[in-house]
Design a protein that fits this description.
By secondary structure, the chain is an alpha+beta fold. It contains 2 helices and 10 strands, in the order ββββββββββαα. The chain has a 5-stranded mixed beta sheet, with no helix packed on it. A 5-stranded antiparallel beta sheet has the order 4-3-6-7-10, covered by helices on one side.
Amino acid sequence: MSSTTQLKLSIVSQEKAMLSVDVDSITAETSQGEVTILPGHIPLFSQLVTGVLVYRQAKEEHSIVVSKGFLDVAPYNEVTVMVDTAVAARDISEQKALDAIEAARETMLNTEDRQELLLAEASLKRAMLELKVAKRSKKNTI
């Protein structure tokens, strides 16, 4: 259990338990809109949409691109994020994101299969978010 002035954030993707840290606040995009969680928040269970999750520690901001999933705010300031995929800003490669955008666009132009089109659209959205976060994070380190 963390102190009452911080939240215990755990992020779990299909691949791994990605993160478990104490944070000051969390901002995420839910199906109902953007939500910011502060210590003492009431219990909440919400569906996440593909977007950028931002958490703050000691006035530093950290960004993670997450796919759809769920956000669970439990009593005692414990927040669990369960998503299909999650990539921290520091792990994003601009070139890989650009390549993924190109591949998704190519698939969207050349497919007739509805399922393949939906997957390509989701990949395109995620890659564009990754590129945006990578550029913003590069700008902040210069």
